[in-house]
Write a structure and sequence with these properties.
Helix content of chain B: over 70%
Mean pLDDT of chain A: 86
Order of helices and strands of chain A: HHHHHHHHHHHHHHHHHHHHH
Strand content of chain B: under 5%
Shape of chain A: globular
Largest interface: A-B, 64 and 59 residues
Strand content of chain A: under 5%
Shape of chain B: elongated
Largest sheet of chain B: none
Structural class of chain B: mainly alpha
Low-confidence stretches of chain B: 174-189
Structural class of chain A: mainly alpha
Largest sheet of chain A: none
Number of strands of chain B: 0
Number of strands of chain A: 0
Oligomer: heterodimer
Distance between the termini of chain B: 18 Å
Order of helices and strands of chain B: HHHHHHHH
């Protein structure tokens, strides 16, 4: 039995679909303790009792629509006009646009593909060094995961069973802090003698605002709806999806009615990929919880570690490794159910834990040797991965500093929740 | 030759059917959820069955979406070693993975059939007085479709391996691993 499990894990490393690997492990585990394997499906069918799940397909659809449309271009033009005059203006613009875009599209690959191609040539033209530009884009490919309505935040809420509106509040300050640190660094590293910036005139700003007039209300609809208590996450997702559908298809006409079914199927495919992993891991982790593995793990760790802070440090290291190996969705569904009971034992706030999780996994995206962003950027910009390792180093350092502060100052995450929640 | 055409037609039909269903379900989710908000805001009421219906729509669209992901080979995976391996080894890795995946998907189908049968025998009516086993039918159906798509992938893998072996016929590599079918194709070419 154990040999079969090892074989399965080996296939995972060779690129077998993760849901197949997890389902196989669950089937083998239940079979080995002589429980009927239809239990695996019973666990999966519990997904139909999760009302929060509705937010996922609808936000994925909205995100896919936004990335297939001309929105990235318009967003970029607007922010350049508004902020381009700052020292390091373009770098600041890149960071902000990437953060907003990732928050809405969630899957970080989209940011690098949709925005990277526009940002890299622009940065190089403004005399930023190639190393800096590549590092900036690669590491900001997953920036913004802490801001609502980011999909991984929702998924964490679904699995850990904590309130999503609280998570959305908790992510804001850590996210702003991370962004400010990166912005400060980018301003410091901006080319010494910037080109004479053309004067921004009012007319241009108005033109850009008019151009994006239909897209600008989007964050306010989502955030206002959720924070204002009018909408739960799933409903906010439905409104966003409807709004984006109408705006992109009928107002901007970026996406023709003919293209629409293709985009719908594509977004449902992305959702399906996540859902089956979630389904399979519900069965697998339920087996582990049944066998009291998290509790035994907790007992074991407690013999060596008594302090909550040492535990958090270990957790950080563990999650960084996981984050560089797995994509964020699989990492969440597999690890969260196992860590939550242990974290409870150490008296870690589950909202704070969520922010720690996401920060780690976000950093894992650009951690050598196998962080996903590095490969995506290598593919997109046709540069060797090794070059990207070097380029992202300084950004990685800054992100690590943020991670330490987020981990050891829980108040940064919890302040807004206590104040407004 | 004829049966290949039939299979191709069935596959095209399946593709269109699933794509169409997915679009409809997505539109239904958006409409139903927005309708629910509207009813609540303006009439402080709502449709009783809307919320459970939405949850099943999420499940069904997700499972069918996973069938599409299988068809398009877009499942989430790690794929580090596969990325680094040379082409000649990669084709074999892919074959092993597809064999393994179709086996697991087939076992999942079997487990799902058992589950639905138990629901049929012991489960009660649920949403809209439709029995619960019907709402759960998506599990055996989707896993069976995934198993079929993994099997089709195996057929394609074998074809790819044959082509590769044929290309390298004169290299010593082919001499070591001989495929049962490769000679036949070789003489025909």
């Amino acid at each position: 039995m154990n040999i079969l499990k090892l074989f399965t894990l080996a296939l995972a490393l060779l690129g077998s679909p993760l849901f197949i690997v997890i389902a196989a492990l669950a089937l083998l585990s239940f079979y080995s303790v002589e429980i009927d394997i239809s239990v695996v499906i019973i666990e999966m069918s519990r997904l139909a009792d999760t009302p929060l799940l509705l937010a996922l397909p609808l936000f994925i659809f909205a995100g896919t629509m936004l990335s297939e449309s001309e929105t990235p271009k318009r967003l970029l033009r607007l922010s350049r006009t508004l902020l381009g005059w700052l020292p390091g203006g373009l770098a600041v613009v890149s960071l902000l646009v990437c953060a907003v875009f990732t928050a809405f599209t969630g899957a970080s690959g989209v940011t690098i593909f949709a925005l990277g191609g526009l940002l890299l040539p622009a940065l190089l033209k403004d005399n930023y060094s190639e190393k800096f530009s590549l590092g900036l884009i690669t590491s900001s490919g997953s920036l913004g995961l802490l801001f609502p309505p980011s999909l991984p935040l929702i998924l964490y809420g679904v699995i850990a069973e904590v309130r999503i509106d609280h998570l959305f509040l908790a992510g804001i300050l850590p996210g702003v802090f991370m962004l400010s640190l990166l912005i400060a660094y980018s301003m410091y590293k901006s080319p010494r003698k910037p080109k004479q910036q053309e004067q921004v005139n009012m007319r241009e700003i108005l033109g850009c605002l008019k151009e994006t007039a239909w897209e600008l209300p989007l964050p306010f609809i989502v955030l206002g709806g959720i924070y204002g208590g009018f909408l739960v996450a799933g409903e906010a997702a439905a409104i966003t999806a409807l709004y984006v559908l109408i705006v992109e298809v009928f107002l901007y006409r970026d996406i023709s009615l003919k293209q629409l079914p293709g985009i719908m199927v594509k977004s449902m495919m992305l959702f399906g990929g996540i859902l089956v992993i979630l389904a399979a891991s519900m069965a697998a982790t339920n087996f582990l919880v049944d066998q009291e593995v998290p509790m035994r793990l907790f007992e074991f760790i407690r013999q060596y570690i008594s302090s909550k802070y040492t535990f958090l440090l270990l957790l950080n290291i563990f999650l960084l490794i996981v984050g560089s190996m797995l994509d964020i969705f699989s990492a969440l569904v597999l690890v969260v159910p196992l860590i939550v009971p242990i974290a409870r034992g150490y008296d870690v706030n589950l909202i704070h834990l969520g922010i720690i999780f996401l920060t780690n996994l976000q950093i894992g995206y650009c951690t050598p040797p196998v962080g996903l962003n590095l490969f995506l950027a290598s593919y997109r910009f046709d540069r060797p991965v090794i070059q990207l390792y070097g380029a992202t180093m300084p950004f990685l350092g800054l992100l690590m500093i943020t991670l330490v502060i987020i981990t050891y100052f829980p108040l940064l995450s919890l302040f807004l929740v206590r104040f407004l929640g | 030759m004829n049966y290949q055409q039939v299979i191709r037609q069935i596959l095209t039909f399946e593709k269109r059917l699933i794509n169409g269903l997915l679009c409809l379900m997505l539109l239904a989710m958006i409409t139903l959820a927005c309708l629910q908000i509207g009813m609540r805001t303006f009439f402080s009421g709502g449709i009783l069955w809307a919320d459970p219906m939405l949850r099943y729509l999420v499940l069904w669209s997700g499972m069918l979406g996973a069938v599409v992901a299988t068809r398009e080979k877009k499942h989430i995976g790690i794929d580090v070693l596969g990325y680094l391996a040379p082409e000649q080894i990669k084709v074999w890795i892919v074959l092993v993975i597809d064999l393994f995946s179709s086996l697991v998907a087939a076992v999942l189908t079997w487990a799902a059939v058992t589950f639905v049968r138990n629901e049929f025998l012991f489960g009660g009516p649920s949403l809209l007085s439709v029995p619960s086993w019907i709402w759960n039918l998506i599990f055996p159906v989707a896993f069976a479709l995934m198993a079929i798509h993994f099997l089709l992938a195996i057929a394609a893998d074998i074809k790819a391996i044959r082509a590769l072996l044929l290309k390298n016929r004169h290299s010593p590599f082919t001499g070591v691993i001989s495929m049962p079918g490769s000679r036949k194709t070789g003489s025909g070419a």
